[in-house]
Amino acid sequence: MFCVALLFGNWGLSAELQVTPIPLFTNVPYGFESRQVLDVYLAENDVPAPVVVYIHGGGWTGGTLKLKPGNKTTGIVSELLDAGISVVSVDYRRNGDGVTLPTPVHDAARAVQFIRSKADEWNMDKTRLAVWGGSAGGATSLWLLFHDDLADPKSNDPVARESTRLSGAVVQNGQSMIDPKWIIEHIGRKGAEHSMIPAAVGEEELDGVLERYEAHKELYAEFSAMNHLTPDDPPYWGLYQGDATVPATSAGHGIHHRMFGIKMKEKSDSIGHVGYLAKSKECPYKDEFEFFKSVLNAPSESR
Length: 303
Known about the structure:
8-stranded mixed sheet, two-stranded antiparallel ribbon, 10 strands, globular, alpha/beta
């Protein structure tokens, strides 16, 4: 099912019509908490479809899994579906709602496992599964991409026995490191002052984080995705749209700083890992869609 949204530009009504996909299944529970739900957009394929899992942003304290008419995310989902790639949009529990790390990231990992457990029912190829996220959703996507498999083959829970390993990830302005001391060193204090960083460990502001840093440093280290990067990890495509001014000029600039992508690419290159930064000379993919088509070995129909 689809709905059609009219787009209004600066000069009045645009002639362009964008089709907004509507999920076949909505608010499917993958856990027992109200936010542990996902929406499923199925491509019309005769054979099992590759899958992209979308993890929304919002600093791990907000955001929504629902698509909004007329925005870039919705347009990419439409392209993926047209190309025979199914999409699942994931919600998760928020830091500040009585939880902290690892809850939002582990929820997303559980969602990936749940999706794989439903592969036969939803006509999906669970061997071709990638993730995609912006901001905090990008940080989670990177962590899943670089982390060792969380599957527990001995578990009594069939979902927990499923793999969390991936074919690739698209990361839009995602934090490759969340350690505030790293952020202060490479980006500036403003970046570490963003509410995402203290809320991740249950603090209200950066000063409290730094005063009690020893109590928090293991969590910051564990969920700084770059700490898990190894040469054999799948590829990522990173889009960082802010400038590289250091120190960051504001918390918003700092938390989405281009330096997160620059330093990740430097490490990727130094250890022989394959990763890409959008719009760089060596990147063979012009956008998210082309990257997903490649890493998921999707059909090659024209766009």
